[in-house]
User: What shape does this take?
Amino acid sequence: MEKFKKLGISEFVLKSIKEQKFTEPTEIQEKSIPLVLEGKDVMAESATGSGKTLVFAAGIIQSSERGKGIQALILTPTRELAEQVAKSFELFSKYSPLSIVAVYGGLSIGPQIRALKTADVVVGTPGRILDHLNRNTLELSSINTVVLDEADRMLDMGFAADVEKILNECPVERQTMLFSATFSKDMIRIGKKHMDSPVRISAEPHVDPKKLTQVCYDVRGNMKFSLLVHLLKEEKSHRVMVFCNTQRNTDFVANNLKSVGINALPMHGGFSQNQRGKTMVQFNSKAQKSYALVCTDVASRGLDIKGVSHIYNFDFPREIDNYVHRIGRTARAGKEGMAVSLIAENDADNLKATIKKTKLKLTWKKVPEIERLRVKKVEQAPPTRYSRKFNFKQKNHKTGFRKYSRR
Assistant: This one.
């Protein structure tokens, strides 16, 4: 705890840190917290899981006072991250209570409107924050701190314009912090436009490269699933994540893993907020009823997932950053981890591009002799009653209405 004290963190925040059994600060915390406590604007390059929430929480908790209006706004790209940040804030502010409110889509807006009336800190997604601003149910005149968390992902998801609109609604005199795994040209532009002489900080990835083993298998496409099952059963991993590039493949892998007796949970962007929340609770359960989380890149960042021993790339990611975020789910906190990629013909180009730009050191392994398993294809969702009845035609640009005809 001595190292945390030296950063200048207040006693009531230190007390909550101790209760959460944090022993020493991470690199991003050590570099950023003193600057944040001085009130400086900060642009920090840091991956998911590096402990950045404490960085901005320490500053906000010490500069905010209960009942003085909304004094801090934290923007996140996803609902899951908004929930996670809000929960962390509640823990860090345990001995200096603040009203923390998370707002995001997918839930009734009524309870959020009522909660915002007494909020001190608001954590939310850009779309829902703008919705509240348009309804005049969110007042930002008392804001003294704004945080853009996982800013690169917000921009990737098309929220750049929304973020700028929200920043323009906040007081000019404020502290602004931007956290991102990478800095793009758009990110730097936003920093120059909306931040006051920001200090740029970079931290090494939270994953310990000495603890991470990265292996590849050159496998035929029709043997991919069989190899995955073999590896999962032979390696006896404790908690694993299997990444796919599409929702359809995610459902295909999860359903077929269940059919061969492997407990698997699917999760992708097609799930409702309620479904995704239940899935994460089940996967993180200490009872460990679930063995594998089969997911798209929606789970590669911003979710609180601990103790992952192996990650499997059933599909090799199309984007280089996604590979980095996927493998960042394992080899954490001094524990060993393994990243396994199943490379079929249609994955080769993605792999070559990643190797060329990142100079990855991969170990190739020979595919063992295994029996090809029968798999069931994912059934297409049946057409709805409405879609069977009507045949939708193009919009009539003169009238502004669409024409419908019965089939």
